[in-house]
Structures are given as C-alpha cells and as structure tokens.
Amino acid sequence: FFPPEAVAELEADLREMGKDVVFNLGCRDGNKLMLQNYLLGAHLLGLENILVLKGDDFTVTELGRVKDVNDYTPTGLIAAIKDLNHGVDYRGLKLRIPTNFCVGATLDFGLPLASETALARCKVEAGADFFVTQPIYDLSQVARFYEVYPIPRPIFYGLQILDREGIIFGDVPPWMQEELEKGRPGVDMALEQIHTFIEAGMC
Prior knowledge:
This protein is α/β, with parallel strands linked by helices. Helix content is 44%, strand content 13%. The longest helix is centred in the N-terminal third of the chain and has 14 residues, at 4-17.
C-alpha cells in the first residue's frame, strides 16, 4: 500500500512536468507475485508506461549474494501485463479494475539478425506497443532488420553520449573510440549521430 500523501505528491509532479514517465521492469529480479504487485502499485500511482527488460546476467560473484528468478521471459511478461489490461491476474482471477499499461520492449540491432527479428515478432504478438533499441552506431543494421521484418510498432532509437570514463553500451566503432581517446567530446559525436538519424528519416 502507498501512503495517500505519496500518491498525491507523484500525481502533482507528473502534472507539473507535463510528460509521461516510462519505468523499467526486469524479469530477472522477481517472481510472478512480486512483479504483479509492482505493476498494481504502479497502476495505483498512475504510471502507465513500462519498458520490459530481461536484465543482465549476474556475475559469479553476484550469484553468491543474490539469485536471479526469471519466472517470466520478457515476451511472457509482456503477455502477462496485457492480461492485467484485460482484468486478469497471473492466477487467472479477475481484477476489480483492469490496468491500462502501454508496454515497451527492447531491441538490439547488433545481435544476430535471424534471432532478433524472430524475437521482435514474438514480442509484437505478445502485445508490445513500442520498442526501445540499444544504442545504434551503424544504420545499415537498421536497414537489414527492416528488410527481414518491417516492425509494425513505433521505435525509439538508442543514442549514447559517450564518455571516456563511462560505461559503453553496444559495439562502438573504432573511429569513435579513437576520437573519444583524443579528447573529442561525446556530446559532439552524439549531435553528429542525431543529424545522421534525421537524414535517414529516423527522427
């Protein structure tokens, strides 16, 4: 249960920002009951946009302290959230009030084409409403993906502002790594990428 004052404060913040919030939910970190409780709590707080993730695998050291759960695959969790939208919980029981979630899924153009297009198709069939990609550095990967599966959902393309001391996601091209090491600001390279995205009709 959430204190009424906490709910009121969040609602006020959302009104003030005037923007939708998207929160992440990882399959790795909880069983079906816990994930459903999170979802129903989010529903009570008025949060409607979810990005479903698998979650990175734990290291051997981490597995000595915690345990991954994975009651759901990402595709299975997407389908379960859509069931909540139809007023049915994970036990098949009726909810008094259905949820109204808009469900996002992840997409990685850097993974093998056949498996990633097949997985994206499964996520669409499970009910995914939109996709968010890992950072993109090679637009030809996007073109090849669309040739195999012209995905019928909105896609938000990932763009990372690189930092020499930061965490890097995806396969950064060698030339970008060299520019970064020479001291070129990551913001400059990100702006250059945005212009490339615009010219390619991706924005």
